[in-house]
Design a protein that fits this description.
Blueprint lengths: L1 H5 L13 H12 L10 E6 L2 H10 L11 E8 L10 H19 L3 E6 L2 H10 L6 E10 L28
Antiparallel strand pairs: 1-2, 2-4, 3-4
Helix pairs in contact: 2-4, 3-5
Length: 172
Amino acid sequence: MDAIFQRRSIRRYEPIPVPPRQMEQLLRAGMAAPTSGNNQEWEFVVIRSAETMARIVELDSYAGALKSAPVCVALCADMRRVAEPEELFWVQDLSAAAQNMLVAAASLGLGGLWMGLYPGQRAALRSLLALPAEVEPLILLAFGVPAEKKPPINRYLPDRVHQETYCSDSQK
């Protein structure tokens, strides 16, 4: 449980590479996530090039963390492996993989940041990363040694927990 609460959005990183063994652990964590119908449609593009990350920042002003991150992973779906693309389960599948990777990073003493992509940015990223037409990018994750320290998070709000139904009988 500690890794879940230690996981924070880190936007500044030390200039220290993420070792290959840790990178493999992050990727294994992503691939351990559940997928709809066990489609396992994920494809991961590991980006270490500062030039490529600078080009991503040009595409997405919210990706400024890539200016200091030593590595970025683009989480993509191979739509040929998606049984029902219109149902968007593939979005949930990649989201589960992203969360697994972020929690794994925290457990390894690394920081991470989830960066979503707008549809127009996804097309530009597809071109930049030379993705085939049937591979859809959805999420970027930055990883590295944090250059900022944040305390564990506690966002538990008991008033947002509902039992059996959302409204009690007195609220209906």
